[in-house]
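Researcher: Checking consistency across runs. Here is 8-oxo-dGTP diphosphatase again:
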Amino acid sequence: MTAAARLHVVAGILRDAAGRVLVTRRPAGRHLEGLWEFPGGKLEPGEAPLAGLARELAEELGIQVREAWPLIAVPWDYPERRILLDVWEVRRHEGRPRPREGQALAWVRREALAGLAMPPADRPVLGALALPDLYLVTPPQLRDEAALRAGLEKALARGVRLVQLRLPGAAEATVRRLAAAARTLCRAAGARLLVNGDPALAEAVGADGVHLSASWLRRLEARPLPAPQLVGASCHDRAELARARAIGADFAVLSPVRPTPSHPDAPALGWSRFAHLARGAGLPVYALGGVGPADLARARHAGARGIAAIRALWP
Ligand SMILES: Nc1nc2c([nH]c(=O)n2[C@H]2C[C@H](O)[C@@H](COP(=O)(O)OP(=O)(O)OP(=O)(O)O)O2)c(=O)[nH]1
Ligand SMILES: [Mg+2]
């Protein structure tokens, strides 16, 4: 069965003023009855995903979707049906959501969603929601601890909540020393720190996870660290994205979107190629390469979970 033969389901993430997320309960007598879900339903033949989302949310909640961007599309196989769960974040809508089909409705804090009984296809969706918009990668030449602290403090103060310590070619002792300093600062700010390279070293230094280079990704047959530790992976094409998903990585970084001074010879993907690859990846994908926070809306509309950057995020 091809991807096109899957039942295409569109669902929406709606937030209230306090940032809580709307979930509704699947009625008795239906597939996965009684479980909480994100409102939505099956696309009609020939219908575009955004049009289907707007129709479903009008039918189920009585609201008009004005703007939405894709969050993640999860291919999932239930014994009785195969679906593509295509989840969108609703950015703007009109009307207050009301249960128009008698379904139970609740606004839940993002952190509390994991405690609800939801369909298994929704697990990767919760993972995508838990990731931040910005992913800071440290500058490659950085070896000085004071410089690391100064830069990191500023970046964290500006709202960065996910950091990759990347020290290509550094001695293990240097990685250990700088990771210890970075870990203290990140913990204090409620940010997560990933160390680029060997998963065993990332774990040994007490990081929140590992970021796999493309060569590490090639070498691994399975996810190197268990949840809740994070596993990110550097990808440049469809095959690497497929591998990241196959080993159960939490997210990928896809680059280069634009030409960059650090990789002048690498052919840039451009946004339309990026969008094509990210939409089919089945895991959250950050856009990297000549992008910064100013590109966030564009990246999100192209299906990125957010943007990753060195220069644009390093103070
Ligand atoms: N809406 C929604 N469906 C989900 C989620 N997670 C998940 O596995 N599903 C599955 C359950 C169903 O098999 C399928 C949605 O199909 P459905 O029958 O509810 O679609 P619908 O709203 O168009 O229902 P209907 O008009 O046919 O009654 O997707 C989710 O978060 N939201
Ligand atoms: Mg539905």
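Researcher: Does this match what you'd expect to see?
Model: One thing to look at in this run: The chain has a mean pLDDT of 96.
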